[in-house]
């Protein structure tokens, strides 16, 4: 322990040195980064099942095995405050679904050279098998404080994501097995069709999807009085059992619900509408097949409240994904077909941001100017939404218009564009590189100016590289009037010029210089590949795995 009162976790120290205590280390996000062999034995989980997982979500449980709200977890407080603490009578879930009761100690530590985290030591004080827990526990009534804690965590957890699948996953994790052995979520599509998006069962301590039951559903009958149909129409929540689906069924939808009860063994259930801001999003059914207590009216009110909060989160996620699709479609339609110019090869590609992340305003453009030169553009409008995509369209079109009007140097055209952007109704800021590719006396030249954008990369035929970082100035839309400059470079035979947006090189896990160095190395290594494959290979090798931005690439090559 050093002067700061913290342990430092680094070699040659090993957690296996603490042989008599289960021990694991978490980073500043609460993810397990190392465990000792005694922890593996106590938790009945291999290290590979623990490392990289969120310790709270994976291990911490209430005394009945239910997921524990973070607000009630006594072991989380020292992680947040970086204090040491100890206690007992905490339950962790083992890999086989049983519980182990522990005494524990948490103390802050340094993880590696610069990271922070905590060292957790624990030993067993009691245990309960899965069957024993179910036989011994009383009816799973929840106190008012427990209900409020669950609802608060539901709101916090579900609003943290704008991805429908992730929202569903978190919803199921919150309610199973705390409120039931089964969770079934049926969603209404924008066209009014019903799809069974999730059928999840708590089995041996883990949540297992029953994929054979997740499928498109029959049409929603408008007059049916069956519980699921009423919930999907937003009528009411209801306590449900197999007896509700006995006898003559009113619709194919009811028949499928009857099959669900038979396949799962659910004998008591709650079905509640999932309501969005304006429309019904779907319905959630929680069921018990192993738990011995029937649902009560109090349970139904809680499930209805959870479903309402889930509806708001799903509605937001759907709205976001709809906006994202519109913006992405707009971008793709605005990106041009590359012109054909004798003696010059061009290639380009655009890749949208990963799923559930925000849409950017990246674009490229290439066109033949009135004097026969080629105009080339790469740009990025600041922002990550539909406004950014709309701003991109306006800036792109204005630049084309200015470039085609008069034979002016790139710096003059970009200066005029900057003044126009400053007058736009919506505040817009953008980075852009605009250049002219000219041929004179059999030699090719690139004349360009740069308004706050990452510099183009020149790769010569022998693999030598250099960034074209001259003629750099302020981005567009700042309201200032900077003096912009032009720069010129000769493009020798077999050389390639790469224009790109920052999504290709930026990452939260490494510096910008590292991204630029990686791009330089890979661009040189791939220079002998045909231009048709060049962009795709660069994206595969250079784009960071944790990148959350879209990427536009434009490449020029002078044939040998």
Automatic annotation (TrEMBL):
Instruction: Enumerate the PROSITE patterns for this protein.
Output: PAS
Q: Where is the PAS domain?
A: 24-60
Q: Write down the InterPro entries for this protein, in alphabetical order.
A: Bact_Sigma-Reg (IPR052016), GAF (IPR003018), GAF-like_dom_sf (IPR029016), PAS (IPR000014), PAS-like_dom_sf (IPR035965), PAS_fold (IPR013767), PPM-type-like_dom_sf (IPR036457), PPM-type_phosphatase-like_dom (IPR001932)
The UniProt keyword set, sorted, is: Hydrolase
Instruction: Indicate whether ATP-binding appears among the record's keywords.
Output: no
Look up keyword Hydrolase and say if it applies: yes
Name of the protein: SpoIIE family protein phosphatase
Q: Which organism is it from?
A: Nonomuraea monospora
State the organism's lineage.
Bacteria, Bacillati, Actinomycetota, Actinomycetes, Streptosporangiales
